[in-house]
Amino acid sequence: MRVNGDDWRIVAQAGAFKRGSEEATIYQSLAPEDQDIVVRKVRVSAFSGSDLEILLRALDIDTLILPGISTGGVVLSTVCEAADKTFASSSSLTVALIQTPKSTLC
Prior knowledge:
By secondary structure, the chain is α+β, with helices and mostly antiparallel strands.
C-alpha cells in the first residue's frame, strides 16, 4: 500500500489518531504500568521525531524486540534507522521481528 501526503492530510482532517482519541489509545490489556516508559511514535520509524534513541542509550539498552503487523514498512524502517544509528553494529545487539500471519518483509 502506498500512502502519500494527501492520504495523511485526510486522516489528520478527520481527527483520527490524535492524542487522546480512541484510535490512539493503548489497549487496556497492553497498558503500560507505572514503571514503564512510553515513547510516542509520530513518524514511520520509531526513532524519528521521538526521544527513543536518547532513552535507549541512557538505559544502556542492547536488545530491541519489534512486533508489528507491517514489518515490511514501519518496523523495517525502525530496524534500518537503528542500524544507521549504530545500534545494529554493536556485537551484543539483537533485533527480533515478530511477525503476525498477515505480515511480510519486503
